[in-house]
Amino acid sequence: xxxxxxxxxxxxxxxxxxxxxxxxxxxxxxxxxxxxxxxxxxxxxxxxxxxxxxxxxxxxxxxxxxxxxxxxxxxxxxxxxxxxxxxxxxxxxxxxxxxxxxxxxxxxxxxxxxxxxxxxxxxxxxxxxxxxxxxxxxxxxxxxxxxxxxxxxxxxxxxxxxxxxxxxxxxxxxxxxxxxxxxxxxxxxxxxxxxxxxxxxxxxxxxxxxxxxxxxxxxxxxxxxxxxxxxxxxxxxxxxxxxxxxxxxxxxxxxxxxxxxxxxxxxxxxxxxxxxxxxxxxxxxxxxxxxxxxxxxxxxxxxxxxxxxxxxxxx
Length: 315
Hints:
The protein contains 10 helices and 9 strands.
């Protein structure tokens, strides 16, 4: 295996290559925010924000600030799922999904600041008020015509949201995690691969190995947003996740989940574990399959809570 220095150089080059596949992206400039209003809820304040992340479309967001916060505080970039719930978006942080209970009470109790944005085509950014699927499809097609990639534009917004999160005075920028289920899972490990400021990457139910998905003819199971032109000429799933090493990495998946073939999860796991043993700590990467479908089981949440305490709150 390469030395640690050689491996880090390799990661830097590959990270730049990954960015290059995401289409024509907006100019990188500092994000700005407007606070619309602040609610006091049980255990936390909730800021309703409008962010300027891309210079094209305003981005509604929620910022959760626990009452028991200790400055500077750990923070979580919470990334919502797809699930066909086009009109929920960032409010998943507060409501959860049909596959997972809400995480807002967890973050409030543990003193973790959390930021959630509406992704392109979701929440208040859905193009059509009654047809979310059409909005996603039309947006993808228009962007492709313009040289843009929908997933690339999504990831650019998440990256800019990370820049905003790092700028907040409440936040310890050395203790920022990413988390999501399903689409949020995929975007969580992509964001951690693209930016080393994500110190712990956690995701549920979407560590999808591209080769395994193709072998099972499962492409239809993922939304059109998921597909990045020419990606497979350069990267497989394990190659992207390699860019997270040696930062703590947790991925919990269902063995009966059609979106995430279990053989592929095992392939990524078997590739990453030796890298963590060489360049980090073996216990710093945990990839597991549970006897379930596309959902979070109570025992999965228990593992997430353990990792929050170990790698974010008490890091």
